Structures are given as C-alpha cells and as structure tokens.
Amino acid sequence: MNEIARADYRGQHRATLRRTLIAAALVALIIFSWQMAEIRPAAFFAADSIAAVIDFLKGLFPPDLSTDFLRIVFVAAGRTVAIAIAGTLLSIIIGLPLGVIATSTLFRRGVLLAGERRGVSTFLLAGVSRAARALLGFLRAVPDLMWGLLFVVAVGLGSLAGALALAVSYAGVLGRVYADVFESVDARPLEALHATGATRSQVFVRAVWPQSKPAVIAYTLYSFECCMRAASVLGFIGAGGIGYEISLSMRLFRYDQVLTLIIAFILLLTATDAFSRYLRRRLRANAPQGTLAHERVNGLGSVLITGISLERVMNIAIAITAIAIVTGSFYASGFFDGSLMDATLLQRMGRFVGAMMPPEVSASFLRSLVEPLFQTIGISVMGTLIGMAIGALLALPATATLIFIEKDEAGKRSRTERAARRGIYTFARTVLSLLRSIPELVWVLMCIIAVGLGPFAGAVAIGLHTGGVLGKLYAETLEEAPENPLEALRSTGARRVQVLVWGIWPQARPMLVSYTVLRWETNLRVSTVLGLVGGGGLGQAIYNNIQLGFYTRVATLILVVYALVVTTDWIGDRLRERPAS
Amino acid sequence: MIYSLKEVSKKYSTRNGSVHSLDGVTFDVQQGERVALIGPSGAGKTTLFRLLNATLRPTDGEIRFDGKDVGLMPARALRAMRRRIGTIYQQHHLVPSLTALENTLCGKLGQWSLLQTLRNIIKPAPAEAEQAMAALESVGLADKRRARADELSGGQQQRLAIARALMQNPDVILADEPFASLDPALTESIASLLFGLIDGGKRTMVVTLHDVEMAMWYFPRIVALREGRIVFDRPSTQINRDELDALYAGNLNSTHERDEMRSSFKSERNCAR
Known about the structure:
The complex is a heterodimer. Chain A has helices at 2-36, 47-60, 67-102, 104-107, 111-114, 120-141, 144-155, 159-183, 187-195, 200-234, 242-251, 255-304, 310-332, 343-356, 363-395, 400-403, 415-437, 440-451, 455-479, 483-491, 496-529, 538-548, 551-577. By secondary structure, chain A is mainly alpha-helical. Chain A folds into 2 domains: 67-344, MetI-like fold (Orthogonal Bundle); 366-405 and 415-577, MetI-like fold (Orthogonal Bundle). Chain A is globular, with a radius of gyration of 27 Å. Chain B has a domain at 88-169: P-loop containing nucleotide triphosphate hydrolases (Rossmann fold, 3-Layer(aba) Sandwich), CATH 3.40.50.300. Chain B contains 10 helices and 10 strands. In chain B, strand 1 (3-14) and strand 2 (17-29) form a beta hairpin.
C-alpha cells in the first residue's frame, strides 16, 4: 500500500508538472496573441463606436427591396452560382487526373508494384506521383481568396478570375480527397485483376473506381457547397457576384442594400444545401435498388408512351437542363465573351508569373514579414478563443438534452416552463445559425465599423463566425453523449449542471477539443486573407505589395502562407492525436 | 411505508398502437423490506424499476414515495427523493472516461451545491475523497482508483457501481439484475457486498432478478410479474413450484436459462459447504 502510494505520488507529481508547463505555454500564447491581434475590448464601449454601430444597425432597416436593386441582386446571385458551377467543374477536371496520379497504391506501393521489377520507369512514375501530391497540397494550402487576388491581377477584374481561382483552389482539395479515397479501397480486387494481367488503367477503371464512386460523388457535392460559399466571398476582391455587391454597398454606406444582399446570400446557401441534399438522396436511392425502380418506371412508361419510356424522357430532360446550365455558367463567368480567347490573356498571365520570379529573399524584407506573420497567428488564436467563448455560451441553451424536459421524465410538469425552455432553445439555435451563415469577410466589414481597421476587427470577425460554427458542433457533441451514465447521475439526484459537468463533459471532451483544433486550422487560413479587406495580418502585406506591383515579394508571401498552413496542419494533427489533454 | 403504488400503468406507443409495459400494478414496500421482482424477460421489471427511482413517469396510476405523490413533485423535491434512492444498473452506467475514484464521487452529486460540484471536479475535498476511498476499499477496488471505468472488467465495474451507491448513502437501494453478467464465484462476492449494504435492516432493498433460486434464497418477499401484471406477491416461503412453472410457462428460453442457473448455483453452494 505504501509503495503504491509513493508511486502514485511520483506519477501525480509528474502529471502535475506537465500540466503546469502546458498551462504556462497556453497562457504565454494567449498573451502574445492578445498583443499581436491588438485586442482592445474598450474599443467596443467607446462612445463614437457605439454610435457607429447604432447608425449601422439603423441603416440596415428596412432592407432595400426596390425592383431596380432586386434586379441587381438577382443578376449578382446568378453570377455567383455561375462562378461556383464553372469553378467546381473545372476543379473536377483538374483535380481528378492529379488525384489519380497522386494515388500511392497505383504508382508507389502496394500490390500492383510488389512483384514488379524496379526500373527507371517505375522510379519516374513514383516521382511524378509524389510531385502530383505535393502540387495538390500547395494548391490546397494557399487560401481560395489568395488565388482570387492573384487571378484578378493576372486576368483582370471579373467573374473569370473568380471561376479560375475556385478551379485551382478546389482542384487541390478534391484531388487530395480523391487520392485518399482511391487509396483506402479494398486492395483484394486490385490484386485479383493485377494477377490476370490487367493494366494499371484497367485496374483503376474496374476495381478502384467502382469502389470509390459513392465517396467521390459525396465529396464532390460537398465541395460544390463550399465553392458556392467561396464564390460569394470572392466578390470582395473584385471577382464579381454577391460579395462584390456587398462590398460596393458597404463602401456607399447603403446598409439597407447590404441587408438585402445578406438575406439573398443566406437564401442562396440554404437553396444550395437543399439541392445537394436532394441530389445525394437521389443518387443514394438510385445506387442500390436502381434496377428495380428502373424496371417499374420503365414498364409504366412503355404503357403510357409507346416507344420511349418515361424514365428515358426524364433522363434526357435532366441531361439537357444540366448541359444548358453548365454552358450558361461558363458563359456568365466570362469564358466565351472573348476574354479567354484574347491572345494577350495567356501572355499577361505568363508575364505575371514571370514577374513573381524569383521570390524576394532580402533580409530586410524577410524581417518586415515577422510582424504580419505573428499578427496572423495572433488573429487566428484570438479569433478561435472568442469563437470558443461565444460557442460555449450559446451551445448550452442549444443542447436539446440539457434544455428540454423529456416527455417521460417523472415529476410535476409545468406548461409555462416547457414553453420558456423551447423559447430559449430556439433563440440560441437562431443566433448560432445567423453567426454561422455570415462569412468572416462580411463580419470584418461590420467590425471595422465598430472598432476600426486592423487586426482587432479581424479577430472579432473570425470569433463571431467561429462562434456560430463551434456552437452548433458543441451542441451536437453534447447531445450525442451516451445517455446511460447520465441517467445514473440523474438518479442520484444530480441537477442538470451537475450532469453536464460530471457526465456529459467527460464523455464529450475529446470531440470538443478535436473540433476546436480543426477550427483553429481553418481560422489560420482565413486570417491570412482577412487583410485583403482591412483585417490585418499577412493578407494586408500581400494586398499592399500587389497594389505596389512588387510581385517578387508577393511570391515570397505566398510561400510564407503555404509554410504557415502546412505547419499549422501538422501541429493540429499532433494535437488531435492525443485526445486525453 | 416507503413505496406505495396504486394501479400503475406504463404504455409505450409503437407503430402498431400502444403496448402495455406495465398494466395496473399495485403494491407497497415497507421501510427495511427486502423485495425481489421476478418474472420472464419482457414482464416489465426494468420499467417498474425506472418508475421506482423516479426517472420515468407512469402513464396512469399513482406512485407515492414516503407518503408523497411523485407525480406532483417539482424538480427540487424530485431531486431530494432521488438522493435517497441508490440505483445499481444492470449495465452499470458508469461514466467511461472518469476514473474509479471520480465515478464513486458521482454518488454524492445530489448532495453537493453547485460550488462544491465545480470544486470537486478539479480536486475533491479531502473529506469526500476519503469517503470515496473507503467506499472503494470496501468493494476491493482501492488499487484501481486511478483506472478509467472503461478499463475495468465487468465484475470490477459492477463493484464500482456498488461503491457509487455506497457513497450516496441512500435509504433505498434498487438493483437491476445485479448478478446477470457475473460468473458464480463473482456472484457470491457481489451478493455479500450487496447485502452488506442493507446495514442490518435500516435500508430498504428492491432487486429485479431473473434467477428464481437466488431470489428465494436471499429475499423474504417476492413479487412476480408477467406481461406487465403482478401474478403473485407473497413471502418466499409460501411459493410453490407449480406457480413458478406457470410464471415462466411458454418461455422456453428463460426456463432453460433458469435450469442452467439453478444447477450452477447449486453446485456452487455445495462447493461453499
């Protein structure tokens, strides 16, 4: 017993020491971030900033619903959709081949290569595959808005720059996901086909593709949703669409138009969500029992319409509509109006890339990057912390299992209490979805009104959006905590808060930590671009240097952003691997 | 009289209409009594059990605890009532990521103020920690106090659940199938632990059991349920074989199970002698 106690004490001592060190490091990081992000809570309570916010809020109402303006909104929304569709399609066209080449099980290791003689060609192929993966990583790590800025410079203001930026950025995302999906398929069919002497492309078409098709479709649809979001935001840097109109109306102080545009934006995203959910359900429904449904409709169709089945007509109609929409999208994004055919376009792009080479590495320039770099990190950390606070505060009333009284719960029931609880829950959920659906860049513009230009506005903007995202994730995680232990705690007479602290929290903690770290990674990417609209950090430096035409410096900055994002992802992965602390 | 149930029913609605889990159950439990609820699976034992610890509301009828109507209790009174009832669940219902010591401390939750709750999650008060250690020691888990609950074996989890109930220091102990997942040797040790909890007749105990031999051996009073109704309710000395066979009739599985349990239990008792 004595020995146990001593070992116990030593173990405890070590654990305490480690915990103290981690806590100290965290406190240091927070103080540092606080400084770098120039957090000034007092700025919110200054008389003139309160007045500015009140003016802004007053200006929002009533939203501008005049027909003239609605026409503008409609065109802008259409353009955003067009950019998103064109961007998604191009990203598939670029991402799929790169993803296939980057698949390690096809070119680098595994059953297809196990028995092969190692020659120059296998070595070369492996090298190409590795390079493809690295390229995808690069495309993905540079934020979509940064790509947007570069394409605006390269091909000029307008939708084309937006569509190309989405194409490049999401090709990186999709290619990487495709490669991961292709790599995770069951290897046995591959081995079997390989044994029959099938070529690599035959193996891919017959064994890899059929297994990964559902996941590929699901991720592609998800990526389309992301593209829609990104397309709206890209407008802020001059790539057309709703974002462009929002930034325009902000600059004209027409806040009533801003409200209309934000409502339109939210409606657009809701419609996209619904559409992709519908598509997903349809594709899933078709996949397993497709033949059965097919036959039934076919039979019915041939009775109704002699010769052509109903299903066939439907399919042809859908195909024609799809082709029309896609063509329209490319047209509206400026692919056919001559600008792409313009001989000088490629020349201009080439000249731009040439102008970026070689990236500037002079010591004085590199030294000048330290501050914006730290500022970016500071903004991401403070933004995430603010988001955590907002999210945690709103997640508790938004957790159904905490806030509602179960129908079967024993004891007296009071109708007013139930109504009050439902009211609180609905309020919290509404606020969360409002915070979430307004993108960070729009929040930045609003925060600038309240606290002025600079990193503080950026941190608060990230915090508000993150609060909405994390609040929802937190609430869902808390709701999913296994119920049995909670029932046991309740049966000892514990209150709700006690059940939360002793039962739900310990069960949900690993997931909560993991979501928060993931969100921090996302926020770091966002904080590198906030500067484009006046939110401080590296984005500001990139914007300034582009304006001044110092393209070699822009190249260095992009490499810095790339390195920063890769480092963050690496740190995030390490943090998430250890669920305990 | 600690419990008084009058015409208690519990209906669950399913796709094919509502199903009676309990149908007009009436019985009383006196202070200090030891009662076993028996019956085939699906008889409504677990539902009745959840009604007794006030985590479930009956569809019809009245449950009184210590003379007070549970259906009229506001949240505070309900918590006060639950504080006096220690529940040992069949699946143990421990918080998997908390240590054995922390799970034991959970028994005290109903008695802590909010401030104490927050304080104790960081570092339990010395008096509480000592009491929890004593509870763990009495179930033989003192050396496992730092192990997470999900790292413990089934028998250890069962003992931990008992430690939690000990910590709560309740007036009534409810145990749902406390021997269901245990081998004979463990059954013996858990049984002695459990009956040690009664503390010389000060505490009331209601246990659900599918093992009739065990029920008759340890419990002076037996309430038999079948299809949500009470079939008989009398001292275990006055129960005959035919009644028991009728209770489990048409329930091949559990009869078989019962025979198996009976033989294993007998051989174990012989060994003990």
